[in-house]
# Entry
Amino acid sequence: MKRAILLAVTAVGILLGESEADLAARFRNPPANWRTLQITHSFPSEESALNARIEEFSRRGFGGFVVNVGGRADYLTSEQRWKEFRAGVQAARSRGMTLWLYDERGYPSVTAGGLTLQGHPEWEASGLHCIIRDPNAKDAVSEDLPDGEVVSAMAFPARAEGLRFDEGVDITASVRRFRKLRSGDPAKLLLFAFVRTILYERTHATANLSDTLHYPNILMKEPVGRFLELTHEAYARRFAPIGSYFDAVFTDEPSLMSLYLRQGAPYPPLPWSDEIPRKFREAFGYDIVARLPSLVADFGAESSRVRCDFWDLIGRLVSENYFGQIQKWCRNHGIASTCHLLYEEDLGHHVALYGNFYECASKLDIPGIDCLTSDPARVPWFIAKLLGSISCVTGAAKTMSETSDHVQAQKKIQVTAEQIQGTMNKLYVSGINTTTSYYRWAGLDDQTVRSLNERTGRMGTLLEGGRHRCDVAVLYPLESVWARFTPQRFQARPPGVVRIDRIYRETMQTLFENQRDFDIVDSRALVGASGAGSALKIRDETYRVLVLPAVSVLPADAIRKIDDFAKRGGRVIAIGDRPYDVAGSLTAKVEVLPEDQVKSLPELLDKAVDPDLRAGLQSPIRYRHFEKAGRQMYFLINDSPRPVTEMVRVRASGKPKAWDVGTGVVDKARCSRKGCQISLAPYGATFLSFQRGQ
# Structure
């Protein structure tokens, strides 16, 4: 409790104002909690080796560690391991280091090294194999069904004008009895069966680099509760109060496992648990078991409605039972919950693995991403932008990237300090402010590593407590993905979803490359937005333009919000599609930009609202604008391996200062009425501040 009060007082101090001298001192020598935290899955058992490890990382400028109690076969059960872990924690804390807990012996989280499922096989991740038998197809599947409970089976006349749900015949009883997917009707019918299966082979449970353990079902509350008992409670008993030792608990790549990552699966999967039929009827008033064919085949508007309802429920269950349950435990114990999710790049994977990625990540006190590359050109900045946007919507003060040179390590390529700089720049300008590291730091001397860690700490220190400012909101097109999503035998990229993902990604890339900052908001945030004049306000952000990338399906209340925003003078630009709700109601309050003209989006924005920052044509400068302690601040990066000198103009006034990320020096900025002269080294970065009243 004392620690929570201290943090609150510190946050208030930052918001009310911090003297420039104090902020400059913290910037020059950033505190531990904003420096790089190295992930290490145990401390050395020997005291001399432990002290050497702590000394090495302190000398190299690290802020601390993300760490867990060691052991494989004796994970969580060996008191000797716990003794070694306590010694490591005490040694790190004595040097002023920041510590986060890693909640597993490996990944993906929630197995507790295999202990979670002991005595409870009914908690294992399960799903439905979706079997479609079309007798007219050349590669028709066998009549024989795989092992498992037949949850539902139905037959439909195959009509040229499309399937109609009201023509379906329930054949579940016959299929259960004979274990054959066939119909006694002489006509050739399209047959569906849904057979319950364990989700293990070919899923992330086996296709990871750590453990091949059977995995719990995170749709269910009970296995997650057991996981907390085994892990979090064990730490809390030995370190009390736990929040005085550790700042956060990190959970790694949990998922539904309803996605095959290796080829060869005979049928596509859907996530499932025993409570879904009851929960679905309570939420939506009809029977999902009888509507299962709508999740895998096209029944027109019926499919859109059922798919949106089904995946909405899946997202809520994962959000509440996994992320929400962990967040509640952490908050009750004065510690933050953090995580990065799995396969963050593709919208189809967002659905298959979580139902609602945005809602799940919103239940994190420190939203996080996984960056596996240190090639700046390939850094997944758009994922950082998504999680950074979620933090703006939820009010999370920190965002995290687990960053590494994993891709380069697999190819035996050594990354340079300059490439690491470029990687960190791109992540931080997109919304990240904290780094946990799996870097090898190969070929880099102590001073170089120290400089990199100080540089990372400086970026986090200035971004701390900053309130992001931008004019543009991009809608996360989840409902449109739900409406077109069908499970696949390998990964989750059905054609309709691939198109949405492409337009969504092109929209973000166009904005990023043209110095147009933005946030990504979901329909729930949109519905909860307030409005004044021609603005749309979500928490601390005020938007003048709403961009809808391939958004065709939206809840009716979201459409009403868009209509209201447009009527008040807000600019709404739909790319490729016009939104409608699942009942088919159209909205007329949008301007449609053809999907092959995404590159013209900046020109439309220029007509709607003056740019917050202007740079040269095809400039490599990227930026983030935020307010901090009475200052308007711009974080500027050179997203290229070449030096750049440019005149930039920003929407800010006051006496300007330049904060050099590489050296920690704060000096006068070279600004005039024409703008500010910026000179950045390859992958260089600086902050410009404009103090109010000056």
In short: The longest helix spans residues 301-332.
